[in-house]
């Protein structure tokens, strides 16, 4: 089959012919810009103001600072194998591409069918939070602005920025993120400098708390605060020196997000008092941080905090929009989606069709929630981001398995720690967290025990994965040329070059040396 395919391809195009309709804008992003995209996706200020207060209030356990440290450690171990694979595979398809290399093309397309709705749901859900927060800020200024109007303004800005140069978006995110981190640091210092009990307490850092039964549930909630760091590899084709840039940016993104969340969770317990932090969180909810720092800082600092809370959400919207549109580009480039999705803007290099598609879907969802009168905070933000986060966790779990498989096939590419030990540990730990997430998803969403949605979302992802694998199987027999390049298209060329006059003794060696991972599954 491969011989026939190669001869047909060689007859119709030159060696190394382009399989990409248009190329993304290459050599645009340095380490700092990629970190901005990744950390902005994790939205640290949004997590600190919203998620940490919620976990304290809902779970009622004070081990949260340590839980964030543990989750950051787990994701750091996952990142070891993840970025090791990024040094050998540069593809904006990220999880889709990695899984197709490690576990086969069918499972790779299955991952793509999970990734598209997962990232789309997370981005769309954030419009609900942005609308509510912005509306409340205007209300404090004496203006009555409906949440949908605020959401539509953000939507318009995201739609425009998504079509422009990726480094421009990186600069916007950089400004917003630096200001966001500065406020987080100031708030943390203020809270630690003003302890409730008159002395800085380390009680919430006691490792014995990790043995309590609530810790697993807290880890399920905490891991959602890191969603977005993995988007570094989505930008790999637009990065400067991607093999180094993506590795450094991914490690920095995990460490920065984990450090900020852990320190802020501890600082909040110091300011409220370890024994009172749960009650304070239940009373103040998302206003907890502002109530703790309010008595000790000028009002302007609280106002800035609210404004940066809003811009933090906007930064996450922009980061997830970039991730979704590039996933669509990768699939269009390799014709798993219609080829138009593989087009980029002729001047900016942005994935134009993918960006427009995500903008249209977002607009439809915003207007649908508004027309139906649904709660934008609970039913738009809460439901969609949690369900999207479940999809991202599934992708991380599948990718950790694919990293193991990839380096088992190619053991000489990395040392035993990066290629074997770290990926196996990550797979084991992520399996536990994924199982706990699927089992406890209904509790996270606040559903009744008999609700169909306790299991419907996980089942929905399973169905999507089966559809993706089935579609790849159909492509294998109906369009073998398309099947051959699933997850392989980078740098505007095919993954293997076809000599004009193949020589029996050199063809196999040339093929394997050009892309050794395909020697197994292209038979």
Automatic annotation (TrEMBL):
The record's keywords, sorted A to Z, are:
Membrane, Transmembrane, Transmembrane helix
Taking every annotated instance into account, which residue ranges of this chain make up the domain Amino acid permease/ SLC12A? 34-438
**Membrane-related topology note:** Multi-pass membrane protein
Return the InterPro entries for the record.
AA-permease/SLC12A_dom, APC_superfamily
List localization entries.
Membrane
Q: Where are the transmembrane segments?
A: 34-59, 65-86, 107-133, 145-166, 173-195, 215-237, 249-268, 300-327, 348-371, 383-408, 420-440, 452-474
Q: Where is this region: Disordered?
A: 504-523
One family name in Pfam for this protein = AA_permease
Q: Does the keyword Lipid biosynthesis apply?
A: no
Question: In which broad location class does this protein mainly occur, judging by the first location in its UniProt entry?
Answer: membrane
Name under which the protein is recorded:
APC family permease
């Amino acid at each position: 089959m491969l011989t026939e395919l190669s001869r047909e391809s060689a007859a119709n195009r030159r060696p190394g012919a382009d399989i990409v309709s248009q190329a993304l804008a290459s050599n645009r992003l340095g380490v700092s810009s990629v970190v901005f995209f990744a950390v902005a996706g994790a939205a640290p200020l949004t997590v600190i103001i919203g998620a940490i207060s919620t976990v304290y209030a809902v779970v009622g356990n004070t081990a949260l600072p340590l839980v964030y440290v543990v989750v950051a450690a787990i994701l750091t171990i996952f990142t070891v194998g993840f970025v090791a694979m990024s040094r050998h595979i540069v593809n904006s398809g990220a999880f889709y591409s990695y899984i197709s290399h490690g576990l086969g093309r069918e499972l790779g397309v299955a991952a793509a069918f999970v990734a598209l709705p997962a990232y789309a749901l997370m981005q769309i859900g954030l419009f609900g939070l942005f609308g509510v927060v912005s509306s409340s800020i205007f209300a404090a200024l004496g203006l009555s602005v409906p949440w949908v109007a605020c959401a539509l303004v953000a939507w318009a800005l995201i739609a425009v920025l998504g079509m422009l140069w990726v480094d421009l978006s990186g600069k916007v995110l950089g400004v917003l993120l630096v200001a966001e981190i500065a406020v987080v640091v100031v708030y943390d210092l203020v809270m630690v400098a003003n302890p409730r009990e008159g002395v800085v307490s380390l009680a919430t850092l006691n490792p014995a708390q990790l043995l309590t039964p609530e810790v697993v549930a807290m880890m399920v909630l905490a891991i959602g605060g890191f969603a977005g760091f993995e988007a570094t590899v989505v930008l790999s084709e637009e990065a400067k020196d991607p093999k180094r840039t993506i590795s450094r940016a991914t490690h920095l993104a995990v460490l920065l997000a984990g450090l900020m969340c852990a320190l802020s969770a501890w600082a909040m317990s110091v300011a409220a008092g370890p024994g009172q932090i749960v009650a304070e969180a239940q009373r103040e909810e998302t206003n907890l941080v502002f109530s703790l720092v309010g008595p000790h800082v000028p009002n302007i600092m609280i106002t800035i905090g609210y404004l940066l809370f809003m811009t933090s959400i906007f930064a996450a919207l922009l980061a997830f929009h970039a991730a979704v549109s590039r996933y669509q580009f990768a699939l269009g480039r390799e014709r798993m989606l219609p080829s138009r999705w593989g087009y980029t803007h002729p001047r900016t290099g942005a994935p134009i069709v993918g960006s427009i598609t995500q903008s249209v879907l977002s607009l439809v969802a915003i207007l649908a929630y508004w027309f139906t009168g649904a709660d934008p905070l609970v039913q738009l933000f809460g439901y969609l981001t949690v369900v999207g986060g479940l999809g991202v966790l599934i992708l991380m779990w599948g990718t950790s398995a694919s990293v193991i498989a990839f380096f088992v096939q190619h053991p000489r590419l990395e040392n035993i720690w990066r290629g074997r030990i770290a990926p196996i540990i990550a797979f084991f730990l992520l399996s536990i967290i994924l199982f706990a997430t699927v089992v406890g998803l209904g509790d996270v969403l606040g559903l009744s025990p008999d609700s169909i949605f306790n299991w419907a979302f996980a089942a929905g992802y399973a169905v999507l994965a089966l559809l993706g694998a089935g579609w790849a199987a159909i492509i294998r027999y109906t369009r073998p040329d398309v099947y051959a390049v699933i997850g392989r298209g980078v740098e505007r060329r095919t993954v293997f070059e076809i000599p004009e006059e193949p020589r029996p003794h050199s063809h196999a060696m040339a093929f394997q040396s050009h892309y050794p991972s395909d020697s197994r599954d292209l038979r």
